[in-house]
Structure formats: structure tokens, C-alpha cells
Design goal:
The protein is mainly alpha-helical and about 240 residues long. About 55% of the residues lie in helices and about 0% in strands. α3 crosses α6 and α7 packs across α9. It starts with a helix and ends in a 7-residue tail after the last helix.
Length: about 240
């Protein structure tokens, strides 16, 4: 609500677009279609085959991450956590598993959540902002399986999540130390653009450096565009977009 109030003072109502996140069960591309409508572009013009779904974690995996976060020391920087825990563990190891029971709102918190959702919906209704989606989607859905909350997970389930996370971290560390031993997607050999993409993607610090250089150097910026176009042609195949 504080952010909404700040925006209302800084920007005219007609310049603000509020995109409501679709609820569970909506079409996978619904959020993208809402975003595309704000930009006035054709949502079907984009190739979403490589897009990663924003999957929810299971309750056992959530409990493992909660316990891990509780014991991690403050010296671990955010960029290291984002790359090694959020990306490697949450996205690579956990989010790719089949659908499981998900975290739900405790039943005793439902009245408070409903009150907050109604207050937000009322403020948005009178704001004059462009609302993309249905404000009713802001209302929380009643919980049905409170007994399956993370704190109530069997120890074996949390242990399985911990083992899977450890295996992913070990594998990623090995591939960073020995990149030549990592499995290759293209048996015929990767292009230079693909090798550059893999090298940059494996180093958050290198990614930041490249972005900073491209903001100051027109030559680096052009090289990034050329590399991106080469990657798009390779992903799209012979019928892909031309320069």
C-alpha cells in the first residue's frame, strides 16, 4: 500500500499500469499476454519455448531452504546466494520436479489476508490506473491442507530435498572447475557464440562486467547484439530470423 501511495504522488494515473498476477491454474502464458498488452505487442510473436516456468516449490523443499537460510552466516553475499542457492538449488534442482503439495496460507491468517486484499483492490479501483487482469484474483484462496505445511514435513522428505540440493551443488561446482567434462548439448560442437554464452552465464561477476562495459562502450554493445542475434539464429534453426 505504501508503494501504491508513492506511485500515485509521483506519476499521473494514466501512466501507471498494474498487472495482476494470474492465479494458480491459469494458462502458463497468461502473465506474458497481460504484459504484452501493456506494450501493445503481439504476444504470439515471441518464442516462449525456452521460457522457464515460475514453478512453486514443494513443502519439503521449502522447509529445507528455510532451515538452510536460518544457519547461513551473514558473510555470504546476496550475489553468491542468488547464483548458488536460488538459481542452482531452487530453480535447477527443485522447480523442475513434478507438481507436489505447495505452501498454503495458514487458516488463521486468512481473515487478515482477505482484509488486506480487499483494501488493495479498493485502492486500485479508485486510483484511475490501468488495471490489467481481474482484481478478484488478488483475493486469497482458502487453504485446504494445512497439515502439509513445511514445519510438519516428515524428516525423510526434508532429507531427500537436502540430498538433491547437495548433488546439484556438487555437480555445478565440478562443471565450473572442469568445464571440458560437462556434457555438450550439440554433439557436432558448439559455436563461438554458444561458448561465450556459457562462459558468461557461469560467472555472475563476468555478467555484471559485460553489462557495465556495454553501457560505456558502443563497440562492446554492438558485439553483444551480434552475439545475441547469432544465438537466436542457432536456436530458431534455418527458418529463424535474419539480420
Amino acid at each position: 500500500m505504501a508503494i501504491l501511495g508513492l506511485w500515485s504522488r509521483l506519476l499521473p494515473a494514466g501512466n501507471v499500469h498494474v498487472i495482476i498476477t494470474p492465479p494458480a491454474g491459469a494458462q502458463p502464458d497468461e502473465l506474458w499476454r497481460r504484459f504484452a498488452s501493456v506494450l501493445c505487442i503481439d504476444p504470439d510473436a515471441a518464442d516462449l519455448s525456452r521460457a522457464r516456468p515460475n514453478s512453486s516449490l514443494g513443502t519439503a523443499e521449502t522447509e529445507f531452504l528455510r532451515r538452510l537460510n536460518a544457519v547461513l552466516p551473514d558473510e555470504v553475499p546476496d550475489w553468491f546466494y542468488m547464483w548458488n542457492v536460488k538459481e542452482a538449488v531452487a530453480h535447477q534442482a527443485f522447480a523442475t520436479k513434478q507438481a507436489r503439495e505447495r505452501l498454503v496460507l495458514p487458516t488463521d491468517r486468512e481473515p487478515w489476508a482477505k482484509e488486506q486484499a480487499e483494501a488493495l483492490a479498493s485502492a486500485l479501483t479508485g486510483s484511475g490506473y490501468d488495471i490489467v487482469g481481474d482484481l478478484d484474483e488478488l483475493k486469497p484462496r482458502p487453504a485446504t491442507h494445512w497439515s502439509l505445511q513445511p514445519a510438519n514435513q516428515p524428516a525423510d522428505a526434508v532429507l531427500d530435498a537436502a540430498v538433491e540440493a547437495a548433488a546439484t551443488l556438487v555437480t555445478n561446482h565440478y562443471r565450473r572447475q572442469h568445464p571440458a567434462a560437462a556434457p555438450q548439448r550439440d554433439p557436432a560442437g558448439r559455436s563461438l557464440a554458444s561458448r561465450v554464452e556459457s562462459t558468461v552465464a557461469s560467472s555472475p561477476r563476468l555478467k555484471r562486467t559485460v553489462r557495465e562495459l556495454s553501457s560505456r562502450s558502443r563497440t562492446v554493445r554492438r558485439l553483444r547484439v551480434r552475439a545475441w542475434r547469432a544465438l537466436e539464429r542457432r536456436r530458431s534453426g534455418p527458418s529463424g530470423p535474419a539480420d
